[in-house]
């Protein structure tokens, strides 16, 4: 009986050992990687994640700095127009350049051009300045020199064909059109300029673009406000003369009345020397008119 029990127990151990060996054999190492799948396979097999889960996940790559749509390149800012260099390159404008610098009008011109303002400059040549009388520029004050230069600048761009559209008197950058009038007459491309003292014309184009025009003139434009002839001073009035003193009519009438009364009504009168002297002489020793009348009366009585 005991022997049968041991035999049965041994068969039970063999059965259990065989079952456990079979289970281990089924779980082979080749199937182990199926548990840890690649990210791509995991994404394909796992269900779609919710939006909240996708936001929480960090991006796999930083955004590119280069935009998808390229912006158009910006145009480079054009360089400021240098009037001095233009005149120097053209030549024969040395005196005008020196006056522009000395009066600092060149700074005003460049500032206006940099702020998109347009200008037209009538530039006199060196020969134009040599045609002035000696000492003309030196006789001007600083303010007059500034006005003279600004009188050669028009506050807008004017092409040769557009001078005919201007109305006289043309406005310049000088003070006003009353003291600084500028009249322009055109015929085709011929442009005549008159200041009231000077007549000249544009003899050539030095520079022209859509903002600045520089034209050459062969005479300096002399405005009336500075170079108009001054009126001659009036002659001084003659000094007043002193009037002659009038005769003493009362004294003459008194003498005539005394003479007539003495000849008609008065009796002969005898005068001593002391009384006659008192009647004839005044305090300064001169004979008075009254004393003379008495003497005449005495002589007339004596004659009678």
From TrEMBL:
It is a lipid-anchor; GPI-anchor. Residues 80-221 form the FAS1 domain. GO terms for biological process: plant-type secondary cell wall biogenesis. Coiled coil: none annotated. Gene3D superfamilies: FAS1 domain. Residues 32-57, 232-268 are annotated as: Disordered. Residues 1-21 form the signal peptide. Residues 42-57 have a biased composition (Polar residues). Keywords: Cell membrane, Glycoprotein, GPI-anchor, Lipoprotein, Membrane, Proteoglycan, Signal. Belongs to the fasciclin-like AGP family. May be a cell surface adhesion protein. This is FAS1 domain-containing protein. It comes from Morus notabilis. The lineage of its organism: Eukaryota, Viridiplantae, Streptophyta, Embryophyta, Tracheophyta.
């Amino acid at each position: 009986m005991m022997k049968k029990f041991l035999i049965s127990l041994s068969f039970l151990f063999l059965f259990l050992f065989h079952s456990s060996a079979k289970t281990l054999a089924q779980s082979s190492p080749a199937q182990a990687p199926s548990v840890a799948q690649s990210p791509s396979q995991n994404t394909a097999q796992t269900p779609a994640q919710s939006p909240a889960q996708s936001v929480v996940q960090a991006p796999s790559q930083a955004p590119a700095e280069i935009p998808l749509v390229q912006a158009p390149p910006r145009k480079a800012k054009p360089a400021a127009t240098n009037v001095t260099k233009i005149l120097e390159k053209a030549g024969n404008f040395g005196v005008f350049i020196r006056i522009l610098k000395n009066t600092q009008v060149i700074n005003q011109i460049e500032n206006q051009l940099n702020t998109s303002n347009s200008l037209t400059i009538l530039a006199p040549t060196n020969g134009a300045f040599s045609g002035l009388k000696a000492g003309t520029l030196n006789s001007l004050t600083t303010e007059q020199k500034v006005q003279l230069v600004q009188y050669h600048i028009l506050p807008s761009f004017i092409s040769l064909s557009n001078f005919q559209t201007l109305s006289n008197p043309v406005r310049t950058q000088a003070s006003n059109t009353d003291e600084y009038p500028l009249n322009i007459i055109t015929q085709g491309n011929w442009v005549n300029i008159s200041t009231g003292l000077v007549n000249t014309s544009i003899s050539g184009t030095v520079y022209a673009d859509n903002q600045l025009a520089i034209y050459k003139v062969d005479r300096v434009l002399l405005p009336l406000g500075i170079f108009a002839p001054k009126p001659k001073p009036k002659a001084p009035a003659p000094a007043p003369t002193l009037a002659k003193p009038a005769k003493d009519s009362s004294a003459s009438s008194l003498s005539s009345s005394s003479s007539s009364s003495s000849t008609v009504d008065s009796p002969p009168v005898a005068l001593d020397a002391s009384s006659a002297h008192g009647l004839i002489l005044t305090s300064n020793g001169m004979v008075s008119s009254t004393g003379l009348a008495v003497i005449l009366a005495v002589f007339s009585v004596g004659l009678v």
